[in-house]
Amino acid sequence: MKKIALLTLFAAVSALAAMPDQKQTYIDKTFASMDTNGDGRVDKTEYTSFQQSRFKNRAQAVDAAFEELDKDKDGKISKAEAIVVPEISRYFDGLDADKDGVLSREEMQRAMIAAQTAESPEK
User: Fold this and answer.
1) Domain spans of the chain?
2) For the segment 12-38, what is each residue's pLDDT rounded down to a tens digit?
3) Rounded to 5 degrees, what are φ and ψ at 103?
4) Quick one: what percent of the chain has pLDDT higher than 90?
5) Which residues contact 7 (CB under 8 A, 6 or more apart)?
6) HSE of 17 in the Cβ direction (CA atoms, 13 Å)?
7) Rounded distance between C-alpha atoms, residue 23 and residue 97, angstroms
8) Which residues have CB under 8 Å from 108's CB, separation 6+?
9) pLDDT at 76 over 50
10) CB 81 within 8 Å of CB 70
11) Taking Cα atoms as reference points, which of 68, 66, 56 lies closest to residue 103?
């Protein structure tokens, strides 16, 4: 009986030890994406290219979401239109930088940039 318990404990500990650290995995994947020439270092050109690509992809996603939310196609997101996305609805007043009661594409883009620079991998 003790032998089975020890084997079970050993298996559990081995499984835990084998689980990759999510933060380290995120860092490793991000570094590999930036290190385009594979030399184990990221130079300024590689870093700039990576960030430009990252922002471009996010900007395209924000533009697509903006178009989808802008039901009346007036180029603005009203509080009524924003209600379908809880995160936008919840932070609407804070996102509305010029306090005109609607979100412009530029305000949405600024929010995206702020969110991207603050993001980090989940624990």
Assistant:
1) 74-118
2) 445 545 556 888 888 899 999 999 999
3) -105, 125
4) 43
5) none
6) 6
7) 33
8) 62, 65, 66, 77, 95
9) yes
10) yes
11) 66
